[in-house]
């Protein structure tokens, strides 16, 4: 379990962190590859969830779909709507597709916690799932309207949304780390 969830953790770090020096130094396709590799190993060892297959297949698809993100900085997203609408649309679409990917990953984590008979981990996963998705849906719904907010509110709302997203990403990393510590013998 430790090795599999270490791959997921590293893959998620590649997806989350964007360090650009002309190109993304931690490319998203490589992050999806780490998660694909983890799901492949997971399916070889334990076959109690069809969700692992879904996550694996989505990781393959997103490896391909996320290739342009190696060259398009998400940091520049603030200026993209007025300059390059197609690129902005692509990045927004990738954000939504990424939530679909996380939806299935969360469901896989639920199955693992249930199989391991880890009630506390299951409760934590469940709470984080709802908070994560409600917060990100609120951010994605409010974000297009932020362009028309003036008098300093834009900056305040942007900072609030960014801070909440940052905290949720850290909590998800901690959740994955908790799964790394599960004992392999619980799954047969």
TrEMBL record:
The record's keywords, sorted A to Z, are: Membrane, Transmembrane, Transmembrane helix
Q: Which residues cross the membrane?
A: 12-36, 57-76, 96-116, 128-147, 153-176
Indicate what this protein is called per its UniProt record: Uncharacterized protein
Name the species this protein comes from.
Fervidibacillus albus
């Amino acid at each position: 379990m430790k090795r599999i969830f270490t791959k997921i953790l590293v893959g998620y770090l590649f997806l989350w962190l964007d360090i650009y020096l002309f190109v993304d130094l931690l490319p998203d396709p490589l992050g999806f590859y780490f998660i694909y590799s983890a799901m492949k190993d997971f399916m070889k060892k334990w076959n109690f969830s069809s969700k692992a297959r879904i996550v694996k297949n989505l990781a393959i698809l997103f490896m391909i779909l996320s290739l342009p993100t190696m060259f398009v900085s998400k940091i520049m997203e603030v200026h993209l709507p007025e300059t390059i609408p197609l690129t902005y649309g692509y990045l927004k679409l990738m954000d939504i597709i990424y939530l679909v990917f996380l939806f299935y990953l969360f469901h896989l984590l639920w199955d693992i916690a249930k199989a391991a008979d880890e009630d506390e981990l299951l409760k934590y996963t469940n709470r984080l799932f709802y908070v994560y998705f409600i917060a990100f849906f609120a951010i994605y719904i409010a974000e297009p309207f932020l362009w028309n907010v003036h008098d300093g509110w834009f900056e305040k709302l942007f900072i609030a949304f960014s801070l909440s997203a940052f905290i949720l990403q850290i909590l998800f990393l901690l959740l994955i780390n908790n799964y790394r510590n599960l004992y392999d013998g619980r799954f047969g």
